[in-house]
Design a protein that fits this description.
The chain has 397 residues and is an all-alpha fold. Helix content is 83%, strand content 0%. The relative contact order is 0.16. Keywords: Membrane, Transmembrane, Transmembrane helix, Transport.
């Protein structure tokens, strides 16, 4: 039992858990610079390639809705091992096929595997730590996770240029294989007591979570904040290559910079964690809205990759601030059912994100900086309305 292990071993497993967290970001983002190349190589439309990402996000979100309660019942260790093994096999399989339909299916499989891995890792921290130490680790959670979105597109751009788009998925298989080996050697079960499967009790737990208005509004804010980031990830590569005529390496640099902005937002949120709610949330929301309106205004007269990415950098910092703030507070609502709460939260966040991604993919084509700005504005207004609702709820409480 991991809880009874030596402090040095627990620290090693904690470090291993942090190293595994960027994998979810890598699975999501590493092949973003290869979107145009994949569309040409597989001879399919831009929307078909965008749907490979949407398939992953939807699967990832739906899986988390029930995986949390299952992990509370069966433990964390064996599901983590199985997930890494599936990621290893599916990465090789995607790189070996030329069917976009099969890629969409395998990306759905990867969504289930990554959901299991992330929820199990998130719950592992709640198993091993309590109080301020747990809060401190959770605040670092999204910061460490952001290493994936920061590094993945940058690496993916170079892998695609040096080799081809398939190299991205071979890398994912290699990453999963290394983690699998270390998990087998050093890790073990972390949950103190597995909960027996009790359908009525499980339904009751889910019901209490769904009826908690602050918890649910926090999830909605998380989903919209992440949708703002994914908006650029889905449309940006095509704008950069087809409109501004830059290569996959340039796409990698742009997404690297924007991934860094998400990490910056996480650090800012951690520093502001003890400020009053209105100040902690109101100022970032106002700054983001002003930045989006500024991008929209500039786009009417001038379009450039530097203008687009510059404004997006500030917009994504604010999304990182909001995401880290509400992620940390939401995970502390139900500490005795960490797996279930984390799964429900993560699941709904990615369902929200996948729905927004589907609307972007199926709607009118986003081909200019101005098109991107209008969609940023839509999500920002939606975010403002939800935050206003939460602020009113806080005052009543």
């Amino acid at each position: 039992m991991l809880r009874e292990a030596s402090k040095s071993r627990i620290k090693l497993v904690t470090l291993l858990a942090f190293i595994s967290m960027p994998l979810s970001g890598f699975v999501t983002d590493i092949y973003l610079p290869s979107f145009p190349s994949m569309a040409k190589g597989l001879m399919v439309s831009e929307r078909d390639i965008q749907l490979t990402l949407t398939s992953y996000l939807l699967s990832y979100g739906i899986s988390q809705l029930f995986i949390g309660s299952i992990l509370d019942n069966i433990g964390r260790y064996l599901p983590r091992l199985f997930s890494l093994f599936i990621l290893l096999l599916s990465g090789i399989a995607i790189a070996s096929t030329d069917s976009v339909f099969i890629i969409c299916f395998l990306r759905g499989v990867q969504g289930v595997a990554v959901a299991t891995l992330v929820v199990a890792t998130r719950a592992l921290f709640a198993d091993l730590y309590q109080g301020d130490k747990l809060k401190n680790y959770l605040s670092y959670f999204t910061i460490v996770w952001s290493c994936g979105p920061i590094l993945a597109p940058f690496l993916g751009g170079y892998l695609e240029k040096i080799f081809n788009w398939q190299a991205n998925f071979y890398f994912l298989a290699f990453y999963a294989a290394i983690l699998l080996v270390f998990e087998l050697i050093y890790s073990s079960e972390s949950i103190a007591e597995k909960k027996k499967i009790n359908l009525s009790q499980t339904v009751s737990v889910y019901k209490s979570m769904l009826q908690n208005k602050q918890f649910m509004l926090g999830i909605l804010i998380l989903g919209i904040s992440y949708s703002i980031v994914m908006l650029f990830n889905i449309t940006g590569p095509f704008i950069i290559e087809n409109t501004f005529h830059y290569t996959s390496v340039a796409i990698g640099y742009c997404t690297l910079l924007l991934g860094f902005s998400w990490g910056v937002g996480g650090f800012i949120a951690k520093k502001r964690m003890n400020q009053p709610f209105n100040k902690r949330i109101g100022i970032p929301i106002a700054v983001q809205l002003v930045a989006i309106i500024g991008l929209l205004g500039v786009s009417m007269f001038y379009e450039s990759i530097f203008v687009m990415v510059g404004f997006a950098f500030l917009i994504h910092i604010i999304s990182g601030v909001l995401f880290t703030t509400f992620f940390t507070s939401s995970m502390l609502f139900f500490p005795t059912n960490a797996g279930t709460a984390g799964g429900l939260m993560g699941g709904l966040v990615y369902i929200i994100t996948s729905i927004s991604g589907s609307l972007i993919s199926l709607g009118s084509q986003v081909s200019t900086q101005g098109d991107l700005a209008w969609r940023y504005l839509f999500f920002a207004i939606l975010l403002l309305l939800v935050v206003f609702s939460m602020s009113r709820l806080q005052k009543k409480a």
